[in-house]
Write a structure and sequence with these properties.
seven-stranded mixed β-sheet; single chain; 29% helix; six-stranded parallel β-sheet; alpha/beta; Rossmann fold; Quinone Oxidoreductase, Chain A, domain 1; 11 helices; globular; 15 strands
Length: 332
């Protein structure tokens, strides 16, 4: 039995319970890891509240898809790992099948990456999802190039900050958006070339002015909703709007004139990369290279100590005031 976060009904952070639960042994192609730190993601908020892209299959349900820890047991047929290896788990599975909000977790070996030397558990739980998410859309799918302009919405999120650094690494121009001016300085310090405050400025007009009237080659959008019309207006003809989240919680319009001008909207999820072995290997190499050079680093806003803090950590995540990743450490 291991201490595990469970929820017996859909709802807010208050439904999360820390209980003793069985774990068993890893099956073929699986690893059992000791979990030392957990990275929180909005997907878990949506899953917990019944608003995720897949429903909860049964209760009690488990939660979590990103963590760092140490390999303790190898399942049959697993190669490339050894007991004692420091590793990170990336989101590459359904939370109906596996989950990491626990002292120990069984996960598919294909969802596990070796932790680079010098990266501690907190960093290992904070770095992969943000960078692999942004890499998959902008580099793997979009073929982002030097000189391209990319608008990054919800730019103070861990994924938004990773997108800014990735754009800078390839020589592109990251234009960050944020609702209020409170995070402007933090975004400029994080590497944004420009910051657009959406509550005060015309996003499309400002982006067109910043790009000499051309528009951005890409928009990387976590918000969706009514703002999609304005973001399409910020695109250059032939540009692509990647939608990878729906923070607005509202319906998005589909303006036909923008599409007729050659602009496109593409839905994107991290699983496009993490569930494909070759794509994940390319992402791992790209991110590891950035970590070695110092171009990339985990950006952690706050660390909560212990699984007993999980509900409070979810409340903090939902408040949306963080700049970077929220991590919960696990006591043993």
């Amino acid at each position: 039995m291991v201490r595990t976060v469970l929820f017996h009904e859909l709802g807010g952070p208050e439904v999360l319970r820390l209980e003793e639960a069985g774990i068993g042994a890893p099956g073929p192609g699986e690893l059992l890891i000791r979990v030392d730190a957990i990275g929180l993601n909005r997907a878990e908020v949506l899953f917990r509240s019944g608003r995720y892209i897949e429903p909860v299959r049964e209760f009690p349900a488990r939660l979590g898809s990103e963590a760092a820890g140490v390999v303790e047991v190898l399942g049959e047929g697993v190669e490339g790992f050894a007991v004692g290896d420091a590793v990170s788990v990336v989101p590459a599975f359904s939370m109906n099948d596996h989950a990491v909000y626990a002292e120990r977790a069984i996960v598919p070996a294909r969802a596990v990456l070796h932790r680079p030397e010098g990266l501690d558990a907190v960093g290992g739980a904070a770095v992969w999802m943000p960078y692999v998410t942004a890499y998959g859309a902008l580099v793997e799918a979009g073929r982002l190039r030097a000189g391209d302009a990319v608008v990054v919405t919800a730019a103070s999120s861990s994924v938004g900050l990773a997108a800014i650094r990735i754009a800078n690494r390839v020589g592109a121009v990251p234009i960050a958006t944020t609702r209020t001016a409170a995070k402007r300085d933090a975004l400029l310090k994080a590497g944004a070339a420009e910051v657009v405050v959406t509550a005060e400025e015309d996003v499309a007009g400002r982006v067109l002015a910043l790009t000499g009237g051309r528009g951005a080659e890409f928009v990387f959008d976590a918000v969706s909703g009514p703002g999609v019309s304005e973001l399409l207006g910020a695109l250059a003809p032939g540009g692509t709007l990647f939608v990878y989240g729906e923070l607005s919680g509202r319906e998005a319009p589909l303006p036909p004139l923008a599409l007729l001008a050659g602009r496109s909207i593409r839905g994107y999820t991290l699983h496009e990369v993490t569930r494909d072995r070759r794509s994940l290997a390319r992402a791992e190499a790209f991110v590891a290279s950035g970590l070695r050079s110092g171009a990339f680093a985990p950006v952690v806003d706050r660390v909560f100590g212990g699984l007993a803090e999980i509900a409070e950590a979810h409340r903090y995540l939902e408040a949306g005031e963080q700049v970077g990743k929220i991590v919960v450490t696990v006591d043993h």
